[in-house]
Amino acid sequence: MNENHKQEIFQAILHNINNGQPIKFTFWFGGYKLYSLFPFPEVDWADFFAISYYCQYISPILLVYPPGVDFTFMLDSKILTKINNISLDEINIYQNSFQKLLKEFSVFFPKNLKLNVQKSSDLYSDSEFEEKFQESFEKEVKNYENLDKKSKEALLRSSEKNIKFNGVQNLTYLQEAEKKANIKWAAIAHEAYCNMSKLHEFVSGKQKEKIYLNTVPYRNAIAIGSTKNSVTTFWTGVGILEEIEIGKYKDWIVNPSQLTELLKYGYAEENLDFFSEKSLRNLKKIKITNRDFFLHIGRY
111-115 contacts: CB < 8 A, separation 24 or more? Predict the structure, then answer.
């Protein structure tokens, strides 16, 4: 984190304190569950672990600053039908389950903590979004061509991982050249979307009064991971437990390839009944493994 970024964070905190307002945080994330994971399209323990971790992250503020914290998750929404080829119904199912999970947490919140949800699509009218997206896309086409090979490959890998080829449009019939073109378009479209001005204005605030958090270093965000032990993004991962001794566990979020290894390696599964919201089907049981598995996948 450079000095300018530190000053921005300091000024955001000072702005809120001087106005007697809660310290404002934003966390901008995908707003979907990766289609290739078994919890799709709903939340699972990865989302639970992440929310719990973020609550722990900001909890010291609640003890010493009475106005507390206003924490907003900004969720990607309609753009996902274009970029990831998942349906609006699948997006809504995830986002509704995410809000149900937040409600489960809110029962235990002190009065000076609020967790909110903002859908990115609500920041634009449909016509304005299309206009601004196209403007941004044209700029990103040029930016993409100027990237080095390594950066291009990273964008393309991420794009391919997230596209549901048998989704809203049937892309399974595409020839290899057409498939590559589709992956490239989605990669550039994602960057174009992420550079739209109203989204950044919301994340940082009109008066730069918000502190932007992310799982990894990105622009002016503070990188805090998904949990104390994981940086895998919770919307593209699955939550599991490591039993470190009898009755004592550590939470992890594993990515798709690590989940494949777990399914081959083997695991225990425990049924749970913690939540009043019975429709959270992926939170009724959890997979449990041991340290040897994490040594096997190189996490220790």
Answer: 111/68, 112/22, 112/62, 112/65, 112/66, 112/67, 112/68, 112/69, 113/55, 113/58, 113/62, 113/68, 113/69, 113/71, 114/22, 114/68, 114/69, 114/70, 114/71, 115/51, 115/55, 115/71, 115/72, 115/73
* pLDDT tens per residue across span 261-282: 999 999 999 999 888 888 999 9
* Alpha helix segments (H runs only) across the chain: 3-18, 45-64, 79-83, 88-106, 126-145, 149-162, 176-194, 197-204, 256-265, 291-296
Domains and CATH numbers, the chain: 3-223 (3.40.50), 234-296 (no CATH)
Beta bridge partners of 113: 69
Spatial separation of the C-alpha atoms in residues 174 and 249, rounded to whole Å: 45
Contact 11, 198 (CB under 8 A): no
Beta strands at 69-75 and 285-289: parallel, antiparallel or unpaired: unpaired
pTM over 0.85: yes
Q: d(Cα 177, Cα 198) in Å, to the nearest integer? A: 34
Burial class (CB in 10 A: 0-12, 13-18, 19+), 170: exposed
**Residue 192 CA neighbour count, 13 Å, CB half:** 25
Tokens of 201: 């204005």
What digits encode the pLDDT tens for the residues 214-260? Answer: 998 887 889 999 999 999 999 999 999 999 999 999 999 999 999 99
State how far the Cα of 55 lies from the Cα of 59, in Å rounded to an integer: 6
Identity at 43, one-letter amino acid code = V
